[in-house]
Design goal:
It contains twelve helices and 13 strands. It is an alpha/beta fold. The strands form four sheets. The chain has a six-stranded parallel sheet. Helix 5 crosses helix 7. It is elongated, with a radius of gyration of 24 Å.
């Protein structure tokens, strides 16, 4: 099969108005796969490719151009760029782009095929549209935050993966590419209104489905996938580290209890009996404390028991599986996740085998 090293998005031109969080994450994804992404910075930030003095991984793969969009010259240059672009990415509050004289009506009149990706927390309309917020607020309103945390405890923030990146940046990247495909068919561009509250709700679709069918309880830590089940949980090991157990299906559960020497233990015969889960969790917690994390991995990790070590950020790039796949790479002096997913004919142009110190 031919190897087109330009990447799957070679030929796509994207103009990105500099921001933080989900919008640059979407720009990173497009740049990773070969799109030409030109990031427009304010003149005061020209050449500052960092956050608080550190390398900004989300800014990789860009061209950078300093423009004062409030000046006539800066505005004219921006319009010139957008006339030849496929996509504009912006992450301002609703109305800001319009006040800059760059609203969708102006841009689509100049370039009818342009896709305008608008990344916000609350969306372009609705009662909260013009209010400030952050990931934690958006996932709270979506219902997603209520599902994270231990039984009897308060909701726990899943970093900003669910709102900013899963429900935000990835959703925006998908939406913009879908709109690009439509524009190439119809000749008509459009606005992609990507709100993190919408995206966080969407990535919770399965949970809402289970809840609607009576298969998910609102009490945290009482369900199959939220720490309620002993066979889908994490356990501390003798060295203070943790191991993750994900033996959901019966064949995998049987493989796990066989490796643990519990196949004949009646206490572990009722995998699906929720009433038995608390006692099973307690027994497994005591068992996993008898060996170190790596000793358990040596016993379990090469089987269908669905067990993996809980690796720290310094450990994950060194795991043999991640090394073999090149899941991480060294760039700008930082070990960081490599582009994903993988394409057989158009691999990401910045993909490289990890070079680890």
């Amino acid at each position: 099969m031919a190897n087109h090293s330009g990447g799957a998005l070679a030929g796509l031109t994207v103009i990105e108005l500099a921001g933080i969080g989900p919008a640059p994450f979407a720009g990173m994804m497009l740049a990773d796969h070969g799109a030409r992404v030109i990031r427009i910075d304010a003149p005061a930030r020209a050449g500052q490719l960092d956050i608080n003095g550190s390398v900004d991984v989300l800014a990789r793969g860009r061209e950078h151009l300093a423009l004062d969009l409030k000046s006539d010259a800066g505005h004219a240059r921006m319009m010139e760029l957008l006339r030849g672009a496929d996509v504009l990415i912006e992450g301002f509050r609703p109305g800001v782009l319009e006040r800059l004289g760059l609203g969708p009506d102006v841009l689509l009149a100049a370039n009818p095929r342009l896709v305008i990706g608008r990344m916000t927390g609350w969306g372009q309309d609705g009662p909260k549209a013009r209010l400030a917020g952050h990931d934690i607020d958006y996932i709270a309103l979506s219902g997603a935050l209520s599902t994270y945390g231990s039984a009897g405890g308060k909701p726990i923030m899943p970093t900003n993966a669910v709102g900013d990146f899963g429900g935000g940046g990835m959703m925006l990247a998908f939406g913009m590419l879908a709109a690009v495909l439509s524009a190439r068919t119809t000749g008509m561009g459009q606005v992609v209104d990507c709100a993190m509250v919408d995206g966080a709700a969407l990535v919770s679709a399965m949970t809402y489905g289970l809840f609607g069918n009576g298969l998910w309880q609102e009490q945290r830590g009482s369900n199959l996938l939220d720490g309620g089940a002993p066979h889908y949980n994490t356990y501390e090991t003798a060295d203070g580290r943790y191991i993750a157990v994900g033996a959901l299906e019966l064949p995998f559960y049987n493989a796990l209890i066989a490796r643990l020497g519990l196949a004949d233990d009646a206490d572990f015969a009722g995998q699906a009996e929720a009433a038995d889960w608390p006692a099973m969790r307690e027994k497994w917690a005591a068992l996993f404390l008898t060996k170190t994390r790596d000793e358990w991995c040596a016993l379990l990790e090469d089987s269908d028991a669905c067990v993996a070590p809980v690796l720290g950020l310094s450990e994950a790039p060194l795991h043999p599986h991640n090394l073999a796949r090149g899941t991480f790479m060294l760039r700008d002096g930082i070990i960081q996740p490599a582009p994903a997913p993988r394409f057989s004919a158009t691999p990401a142009p910045v993909m490289a085998a990890p070079v680890l110190a």
